Amino acid sequence: MKFDFNRKYNTIAAYTLIVIAIGAAIVIGISNISQVGAFFSKIFSILTPFLWGFAIAYILTPVLKYCERTLGRIFKGKLKPRPRRTLSVIFTYLFALIVLIVFFRIVIPQIAQSFATLASQVPSWMEQLKVIAMELAEKYDLQNIDLNALEATTFDKLLNTLQDMLKNLSTALTSAIPQIIQTTVNVTASVLNVIIGFIISVYMMFSKELFFARIRKLLTALFPEKSVEKMAVVIHQSNDIFSGFISGKILDSFIIGLLCFVFMSIFGWPYAMLISVIVGVTNVIPYFGPFIGAIPSILILLMVEPWTALWFAIFILVLQQIDGNIIGPKILGDSTGLSAFWVIFAITIFGSLMGPLGMFIGVPLFAVIYSLVRQFAEWRLSKKGLPTTTDEYASKEHPIIKK
C-alpha cells in the first residue's frame, strides 16, 4: 500500500511538534526552576574562563587591528599574514601588560593613599561637627541642655555596646571562618579564571577568523545558505556596533580621566588620582555617567575644601560639555545610530535589569535590537510595495522637524 505524503501537511505537522516540544520544555523548566537555575549556574561556572577569554580578546581586537595595519604600512605588504598576526598579537599583549603595570604600580598606590588620608581625617571632621553643634546650640539658645550629661550618657551607651561586641567577637569569628575560607577560594578561583582567560584570549586572537569560519560552516550544514548569509550580515553589523561603541567609549573615558587628573594636578587640588579614576570609570556610562562620578567626587572635596568642591563642579560641567560636543563625537561618531531618547531608554531598562554592566552594554545591545527591528520593518514595507523612509509616514499637518 502506497502512502500519499502531502508536503504542506508534513511541514505543518513538523512545526506543531516543535511548538509542542518547546512548550513542554518551558513547562518542565518552570516547574523545576531551582534545578534549571543550578544547572545553568554550573554551566556558566565551567565556561567562565572562556567568557573571560572572549571578553579580553574582544576588547583587545581594535589594538590588534591597529598593529596589523601599522605593520602592513611599515613593511609595505611584504610581511606575510601569519608573521604579521604573530607580531601584532605580541605587540597587543605588550600594550595590555604596560597598561596593567601602570595601573597597579602608579594608580592603585595613589588611590590607596587617598583612602588612607580620608580615613585619617575622619576624627578631625568629627571634631568640626561637634564645634558646629555647639555653635548651633548657642545660636538657638539651647544652653539649658546639659551637654556634659548628654556626652556621659552617650559614652555609657557606647561602652555597653562595645562590651556586647567583645562578648560576641569570638562567636562571630568562629562563624565567619567558613565564610572567609569560601571567599578565599572564590577569589583564588576568579584570579585563576582570569589567568586562564588571558591564555585562551591569545588563541582566540590568533585564530578568530578560523573560529568564525567553522561556526559558519556548521550553520550552513544545518540551515539554508540564504539564512546563514543573513545571520552573517547581522553578526557583522552587531560586531561593528559593539566594537565601535565599547572601544570608543573606553578611549573617550580614558581621555576624560587623564584631562581631569592633569587639570587637578595643575591647580593642586587634593585626591587628584582618586577623583580622576572615579570620573573616568563612570564616564563609560552615557549621559548618567558624568553625574554618577561627579557626585561622590564633589562630596569628597566638600569635606576637605568646600571652595575647591565648587570650582571642581564647574570644571566637571565644562569638561563634560567638551566631551559631549567635541571629544565624544570625534571618537564615537554615530556608532550606535540611536537618538538621545533611545539612549536614555536603553540605559534605564538595561540598568534596571543588569545594574552598572547593563548601563554600559545596554546602549550597543539596544542599538542592535533597534537595527534589526528597523530592517525587518523596512523589508516588510518593501514587500508590500510601500515607501521605507520614516518621513513618508509623518502627518501632513505635523511634519517631522529636522535640523
From TrEMBL:
Position of the signal peptide: none
UniProt-listed InterPro entries: AI-2E-like
Annotated GO CC locations: plasma membrane
Regions crossing the membrane: 12-31, 43-66, 87-108, 187-206, 254-279, 291-319, 331-351
Membrane topology: Multi-pass membrane protein
UniProt record, GO biological process: transmembrane transport
Top-level taxon of the source organism: Bacteria
UniProt main location, coarse: membrane
Compartments (UniProt record): Cell membrane
Keywords: Cell membrane, Membrane, Transmembrane, Transmembrane helix, Transport
PANTHER family: PERMEASE PERM-RELATED, TRANSMEMBRANE PROTEIN
Family designation: Belongs to the autoinducer-2 exporter (AI-2E) (TC 2.A.86) family.
Record-given protein name: AI-2E family transporter
